[in-house]
Amino acid sequence: IQVEYMGKRVAVIVLNYITWKMTLDFVEKLREIICPEDTIIVVDNNSPNDSATRLSTWNEKSNRPFIFLLSHTNDGYAAGNNIGIRWAAEHNYKYSWVCNNDLIFNDMNILLKMVKVMDENMELAAVSPRVFDYKEKREINRNLKRPTIVSLTLGAISCARKSKIINRKEASGWCFSYRPQGCCMLLRNSAMRKINFMDERTFLYCEESILAERMALHNYRCACILDATVIHNHSSTVNSVMKREKTFYIHRQSRAVYYEYLEYSRTAQLWCDLFLWIRHLCGK
User: Fold this and answer.
1) H-helix segments, the chain
2) What pTM, to 2 d.p., does this model score?
3) Residue 219: CB atoms within 10 Å
4) Do the Cβ atoms of 238 and 206 come closer than 8 Å?
5) H or E segment at 132?
6) Beta pairing partners, 44
């Protein structure tokens, strides 16, 4: 893929919480994918262990250092990534590539493919590749369309998720989607400035859907690159530091923020929360 670039192109945002060794290993993998003019930004989200010291020490000794930013409070996924995205926007990078540190790349051209689609389609504010789950070996892209009351209630406890897997190929190599995949999403920084970045009222969950709603309010759209794939060891960090009951409580809080964007009535919210609770009890 041949693409012409002018100025600063991509800043890769990697949010670290506790898993400093995984982050350092991931940074080395990123070096094989990004171009020399691209920049890696590691944000430590106020890890309670020695992550900040470990990352800082490694970075000082490296002949290819990354930009290291510290958050003095852990205000969640959106707020942590916003630190890196804002830095990239302020330093005139065209795109921010938000990546979880538990991704496995099987396509060395993944970034070039995403950039090419973004460069050619100014209406797009976010693109993601097709994402496959590491454990279950299945595609987990979903929400190609804006969710409905049905999909957030009955669909939450059915097999509806399977029907949302991308199963078509388009000549353009990409298709519109409702929202990006938070584990791996390329964001247009000019659009992020316009929408005032990610909503920081959520700690975890629903960030991508809320981001999609904020983008839609400014007539931006999201897309999925059909010929680019990545493997995600889904929620490996979350599951290692947080009990299931706690994640459910946080999910409900994030849902309340999301309902505001969907303009759901109180009755609709209660119905959605009921089925979210049922899904939780079923272990899904």
Assistant:
1) 20-31, 51-61, 77-90, 110-120, 149-152, 160-163, 189-194, 207-216, 236-241, 244-262, 266-281
2) 0.92
3) 9
4) no
5) strand 124-133
6) 16, 70
Residue 155 pLDDT grade (very low, low, confident, very high; cuts 50, 70, 90): confident
**CA pseudo-torsion sign 205, 209, 212, 217:** negative
**Sign of the C-alpha dihedral, residues 55, 19, 42, 255?**
negative
Average pLDDT over residues 177-181: 95
| 233, 111 contact by CB (below 8 A) | no
Q: Give the pLDDT of residue 237.
A: 56
Distance, in Å, from the CA atom of 206 to the CA atom of 127, rounded to the nearest integer, reads 17
Asked if 187 and 128 count as a contact pair (C-beta separation under 8 A), the reply is no
Q: How far is the first Cα of the chain from the last one, in angstroms, to the nearest whole number?
A: 40
Amino acid at 253: Q
Q: CA 283, 183, 217 angle in degrees (round to 5)?
A: 100
pLDDT band at residue 170 using 50, 70 and 90 as cut-offs: low
- Lookup: tokens for 101: 């540190």
Closest CA to 124 of 174, 182, 197, 183: 174
